[in-house]
Amino acid sequence: MVTRLPDPREGVGEETVSSYLSCPAPPFAAERLGTARHRRLDRCVQFALLAAVEAVRDAGIGVDPHTLAADWDADRTAVLAGTGAGCVTAYDAHHLKLRADGPAALSPFAVPSSLPNSIAAQVSIALQARGPSTTVGSACAAGATALGLAADLLRLGRCDTAVVVGTDALLTPFHLAGFDRIGALSHRLDDPAGAPRPFDADRDGFVAGEGAGVLVLERAEHAAARGARVRARLLGHGSASEAYNAVRPRDDGSGLTAAVRAALADARLDPADIGYVNAHATGTPQGDEVEAAALARLLPHRPPVSSTKGVTGHLFGAAGTVEAALTALAVAEGTAPPTANLAHPSPGTTGLHLPTAPLRLGPVRAGLSVSAGFGGHNAALVLAPA
């Protein structure tokens, strides 16, 4: 959709507006979290809590409908949250209140609800998970990074279960204007549905989205003991920093390459074992080109590669968890999702197999999900069928 925001400067007429493309979440009943709770929470925390309850229930773990407490060993349950910006809608609202009405009007919950740790903290409080809890802030790689950290905690025996959240709600005037100033947003205002064009020759930037993705991870023996339905296995993860630029990736794709190689080594697999790739590809001219070249070099056997951001928009900190879930489903069900709006593949993607319709994969040994973020953060996850 097209979001039109008035110019906030004093003395500027109301007719002066800026237009941006965005992909907001559909209306949802935040009241399901409880009246007192939802009114104090940032929008991204509301997303996280609602998604977490659904994910825990889907994992076959009981959740009290009134308190939201989960039926598990609370002391052995961790919560890891990934976010690109944290609780920005709460911060904006409280800051405006302070400026308009003064310090005495500020809510006592202003600071606690605005801190990034509020995401992991509120999920832990609601679900009664008393194990390790932290929020990761590696920009758009944060969700994938959080999954990797959760895997390490499970391997080290620090917990039996980990709830991993990726969430962001960045459809604010500040963030939309800021992303636009660096040329990251699509300007296809006359065709919003066709605007996100990952890997396409006519791509001109991403469409900002919002939401949350949550996965429940367990040690294999713990899942087996309770008879859990296992959708997929997280075999390995890798992370790498480019140490190069605040917003641009290295032209040689070395950061993403290092993260993928680390993930494959962690999974004890060869590149040829990858049968599907969920790419980070956001639809920016430079980012997609660098990623496509790196993936083509890493995976010369040309497994199907798709970017689901053509449908979801760019979910920032939530992208890694949402796309890991989609990768898990792809390898479990043997179907690769297509890349939407890919009408004319960019010349730089000739080394990739880019399906434009759902593609039957057959048996797949493993899939790969890759994420990247401002500042040179790169993360890769290797997932296999259960």
UniProtKB/TrEMBL annotation:
Keywords: Acyltransferase, Transferase
Membrane-crossing residue ranges in chain numbering: none
Domain spans labelled Ketosynthase family 3 (KS3): 1-385
Keyword Transferase set for record: yes
Pfam families named among the record's database cross-references: ketoacyl-synt, Ketoacyl-synt_C
Family: Belongs to the thiolase-like superfamily. Beta-ketoacyl-ACP synthases family.
PANTHER family given in the database record: BETA KETOACYL-ACYL CARRIER PROTEIN SYNTHASE, POLYKETIDE SYNTHASE-RELATED
Name of this chain's protein: Beta-ketoacyl-[acyl-carrier-protein] synthase family protein
The organism of origin for this protein: Kitasatospora saccharophila
